[in-house]
Design brief:
alpha+beta; nine-stranded antiparallel β-sheet; binds flavin mononucleotide; 9 strands; Pnp Oxidase, Chain A; about 30% helix
Length: about 230
């Protein structure tokens, strides 16, 4: 009986706390942007070149994880899903990252090969959005990159069935130890279900934070042989 009463009291306490203000109210957190500006005349005609200038600036500024980008895909049921992956290459064919082809994102891209990439370079008050169609890169390219990775990364990629449920961490560590023992020289074959995707850009947007939230935004859309650049309201 005492246990029941205590249980009910605890449940009631937890419930009544549900809508109490959290320790730090997000509404009270505010900062100004505006260390730089972006004008139409600053922009390269080719968004790939514009991306390159900003990407180089992010790296020159020593930003941690300047290659980190949010990848958004959509499930077959239409539910958007976003997660971070790391940019591993870009050129006029598109933007490359590596992952497990049988992961959730892999299954989503198989059903709907369109996605959006987002970079947020906080210290530079810059955001870049790139969306378009996605395709797997060649198995040869994926294998070449796989073999360039550190041993630990290769082992993890080879044993992990990314996005599947696992009982505990120990199970994964055991799989790594087994694979490591099987290939003492570290010559782990590139897994068939692991590799790169490339997003071919169909739309870009460059955002620069400005004072008073009157930010600068420009989008690039395909327009025949060239890209059409438009300023967007913030
Ligand atoms: C900084 C950072 C970098 C990441 N890089 C990658 C990556 O390059 N490839 C990858 O598959 N997952 C990467 N992840 C993990 C993904 O965010 C995600 O958890 C994983 O890919 C499973 O996603 P999914 O279940 O939607 O397929 C990274 C996570 C973080 C926070």
């Amino acid at each position: 009986m005492l246990v029941l009463v205590l249980g009910l009291a605890f449940a009631n306490l937890a419930f009544s706390n549900e809508h109490k203000p959290v320790a730090r109210n997000p509404e009270d957190i505010r900062r100004e942007y505006g260390s730089a500006s972006l004008s139409r005349s600053d922009l390269e005609a080719d968004p790939l070149a514009q991306f390159g200038i900003w990407f180089d600036a992010a790296n020159a500024a020593g930003l941690v994880d300047a290659t980190a980008m949010t990848l958004a895909t959509v499930t077959e049921a239409g539910l958007p899903q976003a997660r971070i992956v790391l940019l591993k290459g870009y050129d006029d064919r598109g933007y490359v990252w590596y992952t497990d082809y049988a992961s959730d994102k892999g299954r989503e891209l198989a059903a709907n090969p369109r996605a959006s990439l987002l970079f947020y370079w906080r210290e530079l008050e810059r955001q870049v959005r790139i969306s378009g169609s996605v395709a797997k890169i060649s198995a040869e390219e994926s294998a070449a990159y796989f073999h360039s990775r550190p041993l630990d990364s290769r082992l993890s990629a080879a044993v992990s069935e990314q996005s599947r449920v696992v009982g505990d961490r120990r199970e994964l560590e055991d799989r790594v130890a087994e694979l490591n023992a099987r290939y003492p020289n570290g010559d782990i074959p590139a897994p068939a279900n692991w590799g790169g995707y490339r997003l071919s850009a169909e739309r870009y947007e460059f955002w620069q934070g400005r004072t008073g939230r009157l930010h600068d935004r420009f989008c690039y859309l395909p327009g025949g042989d060239d890209w059409v650049i438009e300023r967007l309201q913030p």
